[in-house]
Amino acid sequence: MPRPSLVQRHQLQQSERAQQSRLRRLRLAEPQPGARVVVEGREYLGLADNDYLGLADHPALKAAAARAIETQGVGARSAHLILGHGPEHAALEREVAEWLGQPAALLFGSGYLANLGVLQGLLSPADLCVQDKLNHACLLDGAKLSGALLRRYPHADVAAAERQLQSAERPALLATDGVFSMDGDLAPLQELTALCQRESVLLYVDDAHGAGVLGACGRGTAAELGVQDQLPLQLVTLGKAFGAYGGVVAGQQEWIEAILQSARPYLFATALPAPLAAAARAALRIIASDEGAQRRAQLHAMVDRFVGAAAELGLPLLPSRTAIQPLLLGDDARCMRVAAALAEQGIWVGAIRPPTVPAGQARLRIALSARHTEDDVDRLLQALHTVLGQEREARE
Ligand SMILES: *Cc1c(COP(=O)(O)O)cnc(C)c1O
């Protein structure tokens, strides 16, 4: 038997993707002020990124990064446990921990690396990892890397989570997104906290889309739901509302120490560059200040305006009150058509297909931001109304 060809297998996969409208294409994008983005030479109203508070180009972040470059250069030069752990990193960890009311924190190169590190570092093949079915891909990847027994429960179904936990008598960790990245709804953290306390299970909340945006002082989903003081371990990512890059795991000292000792993405990766840590510190100062509160108020006002008007227009939005507003279209090809028609109208939204979402649940992911104005939201609504109306006529 000749060896089956790797090249041929990839060619086959590629043509299957094309047939199913699932090919992904890289596009050259240049962000502009005021939530505008130039994509391949044309300017659009941008509703596809995660810069929820408009901090990515904030003067305070730029100045902090520039100062750190001036004093420390660009690269971190080594891993944290060699000589890569500098004053900006240490201060960022301390400040994030204080902000959240957590005893300790550990900085990773990204949110993705942090999730790989937390799950691989804390879990072994003898353990159980229970997860919401709609959790972010990197939580699943972390569980796979750990070798733990992985059980997933239907989205936000706490009774099912309890059954999964009781299905194996093993040390266990339950991981959930705080705000679900493609749905915009919140995890039932009050019930999950109680469940995990009852079952002596470690609860880990990935708050990539809640941190900075929800709760008092932007402390995130758990703060919004009144359980921040009960969370043993949580993740704040720095590339979304923080407008920088990186991931901070915050929680009880013993968990942080265990992760530091054993997480391979922590041990064997170069530290985050200091200028990014400095920018994240500047972002945190804004997030915890009056300016942060004003930016959150602006974002939430845009969400309310959009959700209220969309309901009147009968748009098929999923029930979300966060910046992430998914418009369910179902079919992959239809989703691509509608996104293209919106682009014709000068509006850029995310067209999300499997495997990012389950098959048959392709959607537009409309991401609102404090940078958007009432006029922007009205223009979006008008375009959605027009495009979906034309589409309905074309189908009839
Ligand atoms: C974006 C995201 C991550 C990954 O964070 P990065 O900092 O972008 O690597 C992790 N979890 C969730 C839920 C996310 O949305």
UniProtKB/TrEMBL annotation:
The modification N6-(pyridoxal phosphate)lysine is found at K240. Pfam families: Aminotran_1_2. Its cofactor is pyridoxal 5'-phosphate. NCBIfam families: bioF. Pathway: Cofactor biosynthesis; biotin biosynthesis. This is 8-amino-7-oxononanoate synthase. It catalyses: 6-carboxyhexanoyl-[ACP] + L-alanine + H(+) = (8S)-8-amino-7-oxononanoate + holo-[ACP] + CO2. One of its GO terms (molecular function) is 8-amino-7-oxononanoate synthase activity. Homodimer. One of its GO terms (biological process) is biotin biosynthetic process. Catalyzes the decarboxylative condensation of pimeloyl-[acyl-carrier protein] and L-alanine to produce 8-amino-7-oxononanoate (AON), [acyl-carrier protein], and carbon dioxide. It comes from the Bacteria. Pyridoxal 5'-phosphate binds at G111, Y112, S181, H209, T237. Its EC number is 2.3.1.47. Residues 43-384 form the Aminotransferase class I/classII large domain. It is an enzyme of class 2 (transferase). InterPro entries: Aminotrans_II_pyridoxalP_BS, Aminotransferase_I/II_large, AON_synthase_class-II, AONS_Archaea/Proteobacteria, AONS_Proteobacteria, PyrdxlP-dep_Trfase, PyrdxlP-dep_Trfase_major, PyrdxlP-dep_Trfase_small.
